[in-house]
Write a structure and sequence with these properties.
The protein has 142 residues and is α+β, with helices and mostly antiparallel strands.
Length: 142
């Protein structure tokens, strides 16, 4: 069994949904040596999140941001407001989507569907770079 772990910084990105599949793959040169395995992607932040979604039409990213802003509007009477009006809604959005993904690996590649990509969902207006821990495990190719 093979294990590898890399920590990367991505962004900062503006508020919205951003495809980061390429950045994650670039940080994992070991991936091509895995016959079968798993990649765990963990975001070390509470005001951003990760998800898998459409990777072809950029309108999907706009619609995702619009939908999440309707689900969790900033004008709610939140108690936690010390870090600005976008902070608590960002925490709620992060909890809805989650901070980690587990992805299958087949024959040296992520086994994503044809139209799937990894999104960093940035929920803050003035975000900082985000730290992502990538943990790879699997059976090496012969």
């Amino acid at each position: 069994m093979f294990w590898a772990q890399n920590t990367i910084r991505i962004g900062p990105y503006p508020r919205g949904f951003h495809l980061v599949t390429r950045e994650i793959l670039w940080a994992l040169p070991e991936l091509e040596n895995i016959e079968v395995g798993l990649l765990h992607v963990f975001l070390q932040h509470t005001s951003a999140s990760l998800t898998i979604n459409e990777n072809a039409d950029p309108d999907v990213r706009i619609d995702m941001e619009t939908s999440f802003n309707r689900l969790v509007p900033e004008n709610q009477p939140f108690v936690h407001t010390i870090e600005g009006p976008d902070d608590m809604p960002a925490h709620v959005k992060s909890s809805l989507l989650g901070a980690s993904l587990v992805l299958p690996i087949s024959r040296g590649s992520l086994a994503l569907g044809t139209w799937q990509g990894i999104y960093l969902c940035e929920h803050r207006n003035a975000a900082t770079p985000r730290t992502v821990v990538l943990t790879l495990q699997g059976k090496l190719k012969n």
